[in-house]
Amino acid sequence: MNEYVMRRVLLVPPTVFIISLIVFGSIRLLPGDALDDRLAEAGVPAEDRLKIRADLGLDRPLVEQYFDWMGGLARGDLGDSIFSKDSVRTRAWRALPITVELGVLSIMFAIILGIPTGLISALKPGSFIDLIVRTLAIGGLSIPNFWLATLLIVLPAIWWEWVPPLTYVSFVDDPIGNVTLFLLPALVLSLRLGATVMRMVRSEILVVILADYVRTARG
Fold first, then answer.
1. Bridge-partner residues for 87, per DSSP?
2. Whole-prediction pTM value?
3. Of 7, 58, 134, 148, which sits with the fewest C-beta atoms within 10 Å of its C-beta?
4. For residue 163, which phi and psi values (nearest 5 degrees)?
5. What is the tens place of the pLDDT at every residue in 17-73?
């Protein structure tokens, strides 16, 4: 066990290094330049664009840019956004409460959906209800979240001319508005986890129900 843990720990540095190369390379080596496109749309002259690139360090060799980026990442300095000019770290901290709330609600929905359906499916194995629950679980595992989320936004807008709220409001200011805002995203994100919970609950309950001591007690 200790050797296994040690091997995993030793794999962390090369894994992080490879992932950092992939992330950095995908940003720097892909065709196109977001900064130049943005500045060109704003009508910034070519000379000023070169100066801005130099200020951002984008005119330096890629190797130097990579190590500068890794150094900032190690210090927690993620730089400034090219578009908003705000600190990336500040923007991340600003979005953290929203992300946490969405994650917590998704887990809650997954538990609420997964445990009861798994229990019902296990208590009626082979029944029509079991077939429906297992089919829904397979759908929850296989349907892409982004596709389902798009449908849940587009179809109500077409059929009932209803669009979910898009402006964020905090729970403190408006609890009902906040929950309404997160309802659809949390529900969509919970489907995959809820399907996994349902399958696990069903499997574990079936193991217990079919155990020899349970069948003996019931007989």
1. 80
2. 0.67
3. 7
4. -125, 135
5. 888 888 877 777 766 665 666 666 666 676 676 777 777 777 777 788 788 878 877
Residue that is written with structure tokens 């730089």 in the block: 79
Task: Answer yes or no: are the C-beta atoms of 171 and 101 closer than 8 Å.
Answer: yes
Buried b (16+ CB within 10 A) or exposed e, 121-146: bbeeeeeeebeebbebbeebeeeeee
How many CB atoms lie under 10 A from the CB of residue 8?
10
